[in-house]
Predict the 3D structure of the following.
Amino acid sequence: MPTATVRSTKKLSLQELSYVLTAVLFIFIAGISVLIASHLKSLAEIADYSRQEAIPRALEQHEIASQAKQLGLFANVIAESDDARIRTATLERAATLATTLQSNANWALTTRLGAIARDIRELGEMVDLQQQHQQEMTAQMGQVSSLFTAADLILSDLINHAAADIRSNSFPDKSTVEYYLTVTRLQGIFSQLRGHLLMLKAQLTEEEIQTEESFYNGLLLLAQSLLESAAIPQQQNLQSILEDFHILSYLFKMQRETMLLTSRIRYQAQQINNHVNNTSIDITGNAGLIASQGADDIAARAKESLATALFAFGILGIIFFIMGIALRHEIVKPLFAASESLKNLSRKESIPPQLADTDLKEIDEINQAVLALSNALKETESANERLVAMAQMKTNFTSSVSHELRTPLTSVRGFIKLIRKDLERLFATDLALDEKMHGRTKRVMANLDIVAKESERLGMLIDDVLDIAKIDSGRMSWRDEPTDLTDVIIRTKHAISGEFLLKPQVKLNLDIAKNLPIVLLDANRLQQVLLNLLNNAIKFTPEGIILLRCWQEEGKIFFSVKDNGVGIKPEDQDIIFEKFQQASHNADYLKDKPKGTGLGLAICKQIVEHYGGQIKVISSFGAGSTFLFYIPVANVEEILATSGKPTS
Amino acid sequence: MQKILIIDDEAYIRTLLEQTLEDLQEEHHVTLLTAHHGLDGWEKALSEKPDLVFLDIMMPEMDGFEVCRRIAAETTLQNTKVVLLTARGQEVDKQAGLQAGAKEYITKPFDPDDVLAIARRELQLD
């Protein structure tokens, strides 16, 4: 199956790339950090300036604005107070305050504060003038009041005389009556004039002043015409008084000027208050400007910092976005594909690795490693398949060989027996056989026995070869079942009894311990080991006793086969358990070379070691051998109580 | 009259078994039949209804296990007993054979006297 490949082009090193990217990012972040730090430093400086200078100045300006408002209050006091001392004191205080404020204000405010101070002085002058007018008016009105008093005295006297004349004369004359009426009317006119004079003390409008002036002038003309039309005593005095009443026009003028002054004073005070308010607003505004200037600088610098930070983060974001795309394309996607391929390989799914191209050397190396692993696994699978096929072939071969070897052997052994049977029948019924034929018949039977024995030996050899082949390939089947060890030994003795019958000079004794456990193992394989050892013992013992023992000791089940046969040379004791190795033939003790393949002990060793035991030989050349092996009880799972069978 | 069917692809084995069992032919009039592969054996089993079958395992056309299973499943052959002939190296075959319905097994190379003893026992002859 064709394997996947990745195009081979020049690759970037991820390690170098990571160094470069780290350096670039470090420089970029360092630069942005320095820039933002400088912004923050200037922000701190501006904040310090605001805290140490701008805000105190703003507060100072605010204080000036509050104090400037006092000038308005002073102006109101000056405008409304009747007490000249109060007005003077207030004026001085206003002037002092204005001077103080001017010294702390900027040039523009200094000019305005100067103008306010000047307005306040003008206000003071106007108020003073107004007071002068009022004083003068009061004085004049006093004079006028005196005139009225004088006129009233004169007229009262004249009225009294006229009244006396009229009362004294029952029939007063016309001139007296006219005189009396004229004087009475004059008194009435003066009384009205006097009464209206009080009106001048009030705050009159221009229209009211004109009305009063007209009224006064009208009354004065009437009084003048009365005086001129009547001949009355004191006419000249009254005339003189009447002429003095022209002072009233001056009073009206004064009244008008006072009224005008009052308006101007009010206007001036209002103007001063307006100026003060505006100035105060301007000062407050100036304070706000000062305060806000710092805040504006901070805000501007903060905006710059924010813009710088946003720009930097924007650039960083673009960089990381590009890096993310590159990371995904060059690293994540290939690694994910490699991971999926590895998962498929671990699950042994026959899906070819689907890898993603990358320009990075290290990731490409991972891809190459995955491909190499996939190819190696494929080769391993192929090798496995070949091994499985070979093992199967070996099993089939073993089975086939087993079958093919045993089948002709079956024929050989079977027909030998049938031939022997037929010959026995044949020669038994033929009573005419002479001695020579009898001898020949015996020889034929003996030869058949040899053929039978040899075919049996061939069968055993085939069994051994097949057993060792199975053990080597791990295909030996083990039928572990609860096994009574004493039974196995007894059966073994029966199985080999034929050999002992053929060699009566060798005897077999058993020594089996009581209370041997029932264990889980393959009884046939145990018997095979014991038969091999006993067969060897018979082969190598010309005459004597062979002792088969079995006992339990220190958690192990021991078996031993002891003979007093030919023994084994020391150099052979190391090799007799190897395949196809036999002890060297000792012609002093044995006439015939013992027959065997050299596999029996190797098979015994494999069976014993399968159960975790060990086998060894203790021997002296010429003095016999003891083959000893044990099987750990723990390995064969003692499952029942001991059997309690007899020892032999 | 009882019948014994011998199914084995080896001619010599068939001859060996025939000669081994010919005493039964003479003494008890047992009929001996042979087949030379599994399919032939199955067909003869169906047609002849033997009382006892000696059956090899490794054969062409149809192996012994399949023949054994078919005999065990065939209602007309419920009384037929099957004896498997196994090579010693095929221990697992013994188990498989018994599970397939075989009555007994003997391993090659076998003793003809053992074959005769089994036949006498299964056919209940003296």
About this structure: The radius of gyration of chain A is 77 Å.
